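Sample pair:
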Amino acid sequence: MAPKVGDPLPDATLFEGDPETKVSIKQLFGNKKGVLFAVPGAFTPGCTKTHLPSFLNDYDKLKAGGVEVIACVAVNDPFVTNAWGEAAGGTGKVRFLADPFLEFTKALGVVLEAEKMLGTNRSKRYSAVIEGGKFKSFNLEADGMGTTCSLAPNLISQL
């Protein structure tokens, strides 16, 4: 079951850039105000052409709203996730975090059954505002893959 407003952000170990660089999602957000979003896969069409660009295009608006950290989670290996962030021009704006074992995705209850289509299960597409270690909002796409409610412009009013 997906998180609800007021639920605490679960902890999980994610990877940034390579398998040696581990990131505790709970420590990353700490007591900061942040934005978290997940994509079904790096380099996939909706993620690359619509979802990620929405956060890069609205980066200044999110920062103006007090956002201290923006993180993207993808169920890919850390090398792929990192290369995708670099290719999209998101390095330095968005933290690109790999969840290759679905640890965080399972903790949130947002596993996308995509084994037949993508070779493995992935994360449903969502976005959230995290404040003080808790969910201030959680926007889960109804089909797990669309690009409507989880885009950055929808989060600006939720800050």
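Residues 105 and 111 are 6 Å apart (CA to CA).
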